[in-house]
Write a structure and sequence with these properties.
single chain; TIM Barrel; 2 domains; 4-stranded antiparallel sheet
Length: 391
C-alpha cells in the first residue's frame, strides 16, 4: 500500500497492511520553522511543502493539515471572529491596531443598522516566525449581539472559495501518493461557539439560558456547515473537527444532554458527503468514549496520555469493539521534545504495541510538534514506529 492508501483505508474503517505511522506538524511556525528557518512564515504553501517534504524524508505516511489563513482567507472562520473580510451596506468595519509587547492586537468595530459589534484579534509571536492566534475580545456578549450577527454577518465570497480550491490542489499534488491532505473545519459546533462568546458564559449557558444556547448553536450551525461544505468542495481527503472545548470540562452527562445531538448532526453531515472525520479532543477524552460511539464518528484522536490528557489505550481497548479508528499519540512535549532518544524509542514502542490491539489504529505524535524539539528525537519516533508497524 502507498501512504495514501494506508491512511485512507484506516480512516474509512478497515485494517491496512500495517499500522500507519505519521506525525502532527503545524503548518506555520513551531517545529517546521526550526527545520526550515529561511521560509517566510506567511508563505503558507511553502510551509506546507516543508511539512510534506520533511515527513517524506522520514519515510512516514504523510498527513498534511491545512488551515485557511491569510492569504488563504477566511481566517475569521477558525478563530471566533465575525467576518471582517467582507463588507456591505449593512456591515461596515472600522479597523485599528495596537502592539502590546510580543502581541499585535487587531481591533474591529462592526457597524450594522441594529447596533455595533466589537472584537479584538490577537497575534502573539512567541519567537520569530512562531505565532499563536486568538479572539481575545469576544464579539457576542448577549442575545442582542447574537441577533445582530445572525441577521447581518456576510458569508465569504466565491472568490475565496476558488482560492481555497486552488490551494488545496497545489498542496495535494505535493503530497501525491505518500499520504493525505486534510483541513481543519471551524467546528464542532460547541467549539465554534467558544470562539465568539466568553467561556464563563459558555460552560453554563445551556443551563442558565437554554433559549440563548439554542440560538447560539443555530448560528454556529449556519457558519460551520457553510464553511465545511466549501472545504469539501475544495477537494481535501478528510476533515479535522475540533471537539476539545467540551471535552471533559462539562462531563459526560452534560455532553450527552446538551452537546451530543449537535455534534452528531454535524459529523453525519460530513460523512454523508463521503469524507472521513478526524475528531480532535486533545484533552480529557476517556469519559466521553461511550458518547463518541453513539455519535458514529469515523476516527477519534489523539487520546493524549497523562499529563497532557487522560488517554489510556489499554483501558480504551476494553471499552471498544472497533466502533471508530483510534489515533494513539506519543506525548510531543514531555517525551518527544523533552525526553532522550531512549525515552522516545521506549514510549513509541509501548504506544504502538498497545495500538495494535485495535484493527483501526494510527500512530502519531499526540499533537503538533513544538519549537525546540530535537531532530534526533523525531527521527527516533519515526524509526521506532515504522520498525514496529507490522501487525
Amino acid at each position: 500500500m502507498t501512504g495514501r492508501d494506508r491512511l485512507l483505508t484506516v480512516l474509512n474503517g478497515k485494517r491496512a497492511d500495517r499500522v500507519p505511522v505519521t506525525i502532527f506538524i503545524q503548518g506555520q511556525g513551531h517545529f517546521i520553522t526550526q527545520v526550515n528557518p529561511e521560509t517566510d512564515p506567511w508563505d503558507f504553501i511553502a510551509l506546507q511543502k516543508n511539512v510534506i517534504d520533511y515527513q517524506k524524508s522520514l519515510g512516514l505516511d504523510v498527513h498534511a493539515r491545512m488551515l485557511f489563513f491569510n492569504p488563504h482567507k477566511p481566517i475569521f472562520a477558525h478563530l471566533g471572529l465575525m467576518n471582517v473580510d467582507v463588507e456591505n451596506e449593512n456591515w461596515t468595519v472600522t479597523r485599528s491596531e495596537e502592539q502590546n509587547g510580543d502581541t499585535r492586537l487587531l481591533k474591529h468595530e462592526i457597524k450594522t443598522p441594529d447596533g455595533i459589534l466589537k472584537q479584538t484579534f490577537s497575534i502573539n509571536e512567541s519567537r520569530p516566525g512562531t505565532f499563536m492566534f486568538a479572539c481575545t475580545e469576544k464579539p457576542v456578549n448577549n442575545l442582542d449581539d447574537l441577533k445582530i450577527a445572525m441577521k447581518y454577518e456576510p458569508s465569504f465570497t466565491d472568490e475565496i472559495k476558488a482560492e481555497m480550491k486552488k490551494n488545496v490542489q497545489t498542496v495535494k499534488s505535493e503530497v501525491g501518493d505518500a499520504g493525505i491532505l486534510s483541513a481543519w473545519t471551524n467546528g464542532g459546533l460547541f467549539n465554534n461557539v467558544s470562539g465568539f462568546i466568553d467561556h464563563n458564559t459558555l460552560y453554563s449557558v445551556f443551563l442558565t439560558d437554554p433559549e440563548y444556547y439554542k440560538e447560539l448553536m443555530r448560528f454556529a450551525k449556519t457558519r460551520v456547515f457553510d464553511f465545511t461544505d466549501a472545504i469539501i468542495e475544495a477537494g481535501v481527503d478528510a476533515l479535522c473537527v475540533g471537539g476539545n472545548v467540551a471535552g471533559g470540562f462539562i462531563g459526560g452527562a452534560c455532553f450527552d444532554q446538551y452537546v451530543r445531538e449537535y455534534e452528531t448532526e454535524y459529523i453525519q453531515h460530513i460523512q454523508s458527503r463521503g469524507k472521513p472525520v478526524i475528531y480532535h479532543n486533545c484533552g480529557l477524552a476517556m469519559g466521553l468514549v461511550d458518547s463518541y460511539k453513539k455519535m458514529g464518528i469515523n476516527n477519534i484522536e489523539p487520546f493524549s496520555p497523562a499529563p497532557l490528557g487522560d488517554g489510556d489505550l489499554d483501558a480504551l481497548a476494553r471499552m471498544m469493539n472497533n466502533e471508530f479508528t483510534v489515533t494513539g499519540g506519543v506525548d510531543q512535549v514531555n517525551v518527544i521534545q523533552k525526553g532522550t532518544v531512549d525515552d522516545v524509542e521506549k514510549v513509541t514502542l509501548e504506544t504502538i504495541s498497545k495500538g495494535k490491539k485495535f484493527d483501526r489504529y494510527i500512530l502519531q505524535s499526540a499533537d503538533f510538534l513544538e519549537y525546540g524539539t530535537p531532530i534526533e528525537n523525531v527521527e527516533a519516533f519515526a524509526r521506532t514506529g515504522l520498525a514496529n508497524s507490522e501487525y
